[in-house]
From TrEMBL:
Keyword Transferase part of the UniProt annotation: no
Organism: Maioricimonas rarisocia
Annotated Gfo/Idh/MocA-like oxidoreductase N-terminal domain residues: 80-163
Entry keywords, A to Z: Oxidoreductase
Pfam families linked: GFO_IDH_MocA, GFO_IDH_MocA_C2
GO molecular function: inositol 2-dehydrogenase (NAD+) activity; nucleotide binding
Cited SUPFAM superfamilies: Glyceraldehyde-3-phosphate dehydrogenase-like, C-terminal domain, NAD(P)-binding Rossmann-fold domains
Location of the Gfo/Idh/MocA-like oxidoreductase bacterial type C-terminal domain: 206-453
Enzyme Commission (EC) number: 1.1.1.18
InterPro entries, per database record: Gfo/Idh/MocA-like_OxRdtase_N (IPR000683), Gfo/Idh/MocA_oxidrdct_glycsds (IPR050463), Gfo/Idh/MocA_OxRdtase_bact_C (IPR043906), NAD(P)-bd_dom_sf (IPR036291), TAT_signal (IPR006311), TAT_signal_bac_arc (IPR019546)
The protein's name: Inositol 2-dehydrogenase
Length: 456
């Protein structure tokens, strides 16, 4: 954006703090905030609209106008065009092919909420098309995809927000947790346990007719061409209802072809906060060990031997050797959240609570003034989109940057590779490769299906 429209991150966040209530911004003549003229508001488009795509769009009307939407399911697309029209008084243009959005000069930024296997291709092409990017977590399907995104962000100078909202909207308790650790309230951290829940295996899922309106080949995109699979039982409340068991909407998370199971779903949240607290957002582990785990189907050489059932791990306990002799445990057992243990105490934090003696002690011994703001880097934003737009304004990367996200996501990806191969992996965080294991390193990337390679 032009320099006349730029503002510093601290000035912007101070404006939010002065406004008081969550997600309220003070009026500004700056283009990104657009409170004085409709012509000054940033212009967005959303690509991928089911559930989370609508969620992030709906949270953004306060700050931006939506000129276009894209989805490969015409039913989802049509429903959300009407929703956006109702919200902003003007219908956005609708496309099945997201590339039509990238061709437009009037769109400043895209919000991406497709299945994970599409994230990198769309993100890279959007940046080369001159768009800033907000992309849902987990950002990548493989470790090498993360390296590519980092390179393109640096090359193009685009602003890129990852949708790990525990750093902002649901993050007050997590920021307090990090502040407690930085203030030495539990002494030297020895162990951190990330509880991220397991999942249930699926029954055999048969081939089924592709739902009317869904372009199944385009949905698969970079992934291998396979038949659509679904059982008739429905899962309600997810964008109007989808099959409870399928290899498509919602359930794609449970297939390594398209995602990484709970390790990259909830792991992308809690491992992120754990690494932030440990000061490990620009490094990585030295070893990842699958202590115990259950894969729902048989694997051979790291690949499932059947294609009609969920294949991501259902139960697991992973031990990760982190810097400064800290052990990280990632487990499907126990309460969902993060347990920090140090030489002087321990406490537990999740989206609903922060508990433990160090927390109780705050009543008589509060954190230093500004401790939470120091963690965040200024007054805390209560809206992830606002933080993104502020980055667009200042041309600085927002709170959920690609570098810290990829570093923690490498732990999640390595955990999945270790379970798929059934052995511990030694990791070089400087070279970002697995040490002495050619087969395991082959899982750091994945070849795209012909016709769906990244256009750069």
């Amino acid at each position: 954006m032009p320099s006349s429209h730029q503002t510093s991150r601290r000035q912007f966040l101070q404006g939010i703090a002065a406004a008081g209530a969550a997600s309220v911004l003070v009026p500004s003549a700056n283009r990104a905030f657009g409170f004085e003229s409709a012509n000054d508001r940033p212009v967005f488009a959303t690509i991928g609209l089911r559930n989370q795509g609508w969620t992030i769009t709906n949270k953004s009307f306060r700050f931006a106008d939506f000129a276009a939407l894209a989805d490969v399911d015409e039913n989802v697309l049509g429903t959300n065009v009407e929703r956006v029209k109702e919200k902003q008084g003007k219908a956005p243009d609708a496309y099945k092919d997201y590339r039509k959005i990238l061709e437009r000069d009037d769109i400043d930024a895209v919000m991406i909420a497709t299945p994970d296997h599409w994230h990198t291709k769309i993100s890279v092409e959007a940046m080369y098309a001159g768009k800033d990017v907000y992309c849902e977590k987990p950002l990548t399907l493989t470790i090498d995809e993360g390296k590519l995104i980092e390179r393109v962000v640096k090359e193009t100078g685009r602003v890129f927000q990852v949708g790990t909202m525990q750093r902002t909207e649901s993050g007050q308790r997590f920021l307090q947790a990090i502040a407690l650790i930085r203030d030495g309230r539990i002494g030297k951290v020895r162990k951190v346990t990330c509880g991220i829940n397991g999942m249930s295996p699926s029954p055999v899922i048969p081939e089924a007719p592709v739902p009317e309106g869904l372009d199944w080949d385009f949905w698969l995109g970079p992934a291998a061409a396979v038949p659509y699979r679904a059982l008739p039982e429905m899962r309600e409340g997810y964008g109007g209802g989808v099959p409870l068991y399928s290899n498509c909407h919602y359930s794609f998370r449970n297939w390594h072809e398209y995602s990484g199971g709970k390790l990259t779903d909830w792991g992308a949240h809690h491992v992120d906060i754990a690494c932030w607290a440990l000061g490990a957002t620009d490094t990585g582990p030295s070893k990842v060990t699958p202590v115990e785990y259950t894969l729902p189907v048989e694997y051979r050489d790291g690949h499932p031997v059947v294609d009609d059932q969920y294949n991501a791990a259902t139960k697991f306990r992973i031990s990760v050797d982190m810097p400064n002799d800290v052990e990280m445990i990632i487990t499907s057992e126990g309460d969902n959240g993060i347990l920090f243990e140090g030489t002087k105490g321990r406490f537990f934090v999740n989206r609903g609570k922060i508990v433990g003696k160090p927390v109780e002690d705050l009543e008589d011994n509060p954190l230093p003034e500004g401790a939470i703001e120091d963690v965040y880097g200024g007054p805390v934003s209560a809206n992830h989109t606002a933080n993104f737009i502020e980055g667009m304004q200042s041309r600085e990367q927002p709170i959920s940057d690609v570098w810290s996200h990829n570093r923690m996501l490498e732990i999640c990806h390595l955990s999945n590779i270790a379970m798929r191969l059934g052995r511990e992996l030694n990791w070089d965080p400087a070279k970002r490769e697995i040490i002495g294991d050619e087969q395991a390193n082959s899982f750091l990337s994945r070849e795209a299906r012909k016709g769906f390679e990244i256009e750069a």
